[in-house]
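Encode chain A's predicted structure.
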Amino acid sequence: MRRVISLYEEFAALEIPDMRRAIDEVHPDALFVDVQCEGGGYVAAASGLPWATYCPYPPAFPSRDAPPHGLGLRPARGPLGRARDRFWRGAGDRLLRPHIARRNELRAGHGLPPLRRYEEQWLEPDRFIAYTAEPYEYHRSDWPASVRLVGPGTWEPMDEAPEWLATETRPIVLVTSSTAYQRDMKLIATALQAFAGEDVALVATTAAHDPSSFTAPANARLEQFLPHRPIIARAVCVVCHGGQGTTQKALAAGVPVCVVPFSRDQFDVARRVETADAGVRLHHRRVNPARLRSAVRAATAKRSGAEAVARGFEAAGGAFAAADAVEEVLASRPAVAA
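Encoded structure for chain A:
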């Protein structure tokens, strides 16, 4: 997580001139900025324009009702759990101090007040639009007033379903790895071993990895990329690394998930799936064929939890709710010249 925070700092310096130039060229009425684009957000905050930020990841706002972000901890229970959360929040604050100082150097050039805590920058936009919803997301009584939970971003290119899908009668298990290289080839290789000879159709998309580096058994289809939506619609379980996009896409279809987290926020994603009883989590260090088979069987039995998450996502409103949130910004204060 610290490496990710450092990377955002490097990006921020590049985003600032790009964002200024875009505003000058487009003359927008409002701005909609990815939460990762911190430099773009500083320009937006200084522009005087109405603006919103969107977050396609588990929101990292600290909360008395949710565990600290980044560690994949279980929700706290009792005094010991709350003490644990206070300890890790304090440790996180100490870790972030030098990163906050570097951000304040960038903010000073835009006349913005210094940050005391990392999350204060997320309070500056008129709306913080989180691509998530309960019961997948932890219930929180202390969301900032600007936050809107709109459900997941499940859009994907409208590719046609592969021809073989219409004739496949076996239960389908979809296995995916990250599009960002993170040495998660172990997940694909183990799944191919675990389900060889099983009465399932194993469909594996290797993404950042070359499919030719794996050996597929007779009951497996191995491709670098396939359209996930039609395959998920037929799947009994999705096995993935815990990227928020793939995980939420499966749950939005009411399909349970076996999450094998490797890095970044994937441990938090896995814990949310487990807490919502919409699937299971299996740490990548514990993955072997027998454990993965067992985890997938356990996840497959949790379809009712996945369907409950799907109903929560649908009730959140999706793209229409996100658009409404942006229009709230335009209605709340008129655009001004940047």
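DSSP finds ten helices and ten strands in the chain.
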